[in-house]
TrEMBL record:
<dbReference type="InterPro" id="IPR046357">
    <property type="entry name" value="PPIase_dom_sf"/>
</dbReference>
<feature type="domain" description="PPIase FKBP-type">
    <location>
        <begin position="236"/>
        <end position="324"/>
    </location>
</feature>
<protein>
    <recommendedName>
        <fullName>peptidylprolyl isomerase</fullName>
        <ecNumber>5.2.1.8</ecNumber>
    </recommendedName>
</protein>
<feature type="domain" description="PPIase FKBP-type">
    <location>
        <begin position="89"/>
        <end position="181"/>
    </location>
</feature>
<dbReference type="GO" id="GO:0003755">
    <property type="term" value="F:peptidyl-prolyl cis-trans isomerase activity"/>
</dbReference>
<dbReference type="InterPro" id="IPR001179">
    <property type="entry name" value="PPIase_FKBP_dom"/>
</dbReference>
<feature type="signal peptide">
    <location>
        <begin position="1"/>
        <end position="29"/>
    </location>
</feature>
<keyword id="KW-0732">Signal</keyword>
<dbReference type="Pfam" id="PF00254">
    <property type="entry name" value="FKBP_C"/>
</dbReference>
<keyword id="KW-0413">Isomerase</keyword>
<keyword id="KW-0697">Rotamase</keyword>
<comment type="similarity">
    <text>Belongs to the FKBP-type PPIase family.</text>
</comment>
Length: 324
């Protein structure tokens, strides 16, 4: 994604165990593929062997005999929720606990009760390890599932030295699907400000941006088109957004999340300064326009991969869907 600090966005930076993919967080400027559909994952002997007890809104007690392995990712439904099944391209909030299936060691966890869960977009292009996505896809909202993930759907052949996960270790995730996250801003419409690009929305929420034929402002400018009633985006928060980015001088789209498998999740500490400044202090559910001068974007070097020069002002239309 072209708001990132070079060379890459990091995925879900505040949740170490879920930054497992080792790749960039959001679709890159050069990526145009739409996320492929994820199929439902069946249970197996290994996932059935994970015994899970405890209340739905609290961290569960998890018992298993290690080492536990599976040839392919397996998912056992511990408790089936009453909500709708999660479909490809939808964003959901989850709580989770993770274990090394070989050693039995707990790796990480969180998001239970009133604590903010992790927002995950269910698409193959999402920068979360495939095993987590396979555990969530087709699960009903309110469900608790046990997932056994082999290396091919986790860290691959490298393992993860920080988490003390070897290249041959399986990982166990116990995941609570807390709820679905809106895929577009749902805040109250606000009156557009003079001098800003005009934004029109398709039926699915995809914005079209028309840049005025005037000089770009020299300073960062932010406009709220929809005012959400959710929590404030804090400095350093991990946010889930839909976005479109265009160059002021040409109006050309150089990057967007729309049509690429669903919303993007990233930390505000790992984007270009103007993008972060435009989001911090805004409320979840809002749609904002951020006009970013070169000094707060890519500076004098620009971003040749995205077709951005050192003098280009950037315009982003951002739907703020979640913040943690």
């Amino acid at each position: 994604m072209s708001v990132r600090k070079l060379p890459v966005f990091i995925s879900v930076a505040t949740v170490a165990v879920l930054a497992l993919s080792g790749c960039s967080g959001s679709p890159s400027a050069e990526s145009t593929a739409t996320g492929a559909a994820l199929t439902c994952t069946d249970s197996g002997k290994s996932s059935d062997a994970v015994k899970v007890t405890g209340k739905a809104d609290a961290e569960p007690t998890v018992k298993f005999t290690s080492p536990l392995t599976a040839k392919t990712t397996e998912r056992t439904v511990v408790t089936k929720g009453k909500g709708a099944a999660v479909k490809n391209g939808e964003a959901v909030e989850i709580a989770y606990t993770a274990y090394n299936a070989s050693t039995g060691a707990k790796l990480n966890g969180g998001g239970y009760g009133k604590a903010a869960g992790l927002t995950v977009t269910v698409a193959e292009t999402a920068s979360i390890i495939p095993g987590i996505l396979k555990g969530i896809a087709c699960s009903n909202v309110g469900s608790r599932v046990a997932v056994v993930v082999p290396p091919a759907d986790a860290f691959g052949t490298k393992g993860n030295t920080d988490l003390k996960v070897a290249a041959t270790d399986n990982i166990i995730f116990v995941i609570d699907v807390k709820g679905k996250v809106a895929t577009r801003a749902n805040g109250k419409d606000q009156k557009p400000q003079d001098g800003f690009p005009a934004v029109t929305l398709a039926k699915d929420g995809t914005p079209t941006v028309k840049v005025p034929k005037t000089d770009a402002p020299a300073e960062l400018k932010t406009e709220v088109l929809k005012k959400g009633d959710g929590g404030l985006v804090a400095d350093g928060a991990t946010v889930t957004v839909q976005y479109t980015g265009v160059v002021w001088g040409t109006g050309k789209v150089f990057d967007q999340s729309w049509g690429k498998g669903g919303p993007a999740t990233f930390a505000t500490s790992n984007v270009v300064p103007g993008f972060a400044q435009g989001l911090i202090g805004q409320t979840v559910g809002s749609q904002v326009v951020i006009v970013i001068p070169p000094a707060l974007g890519y500076g004098t070097t620009g971003n040749t991969t995205a077709g951005i020069t050192g003098t280009d002002t950037l315009v982003f239309v951002v739907d703020i869907l979640a913040s943690a």
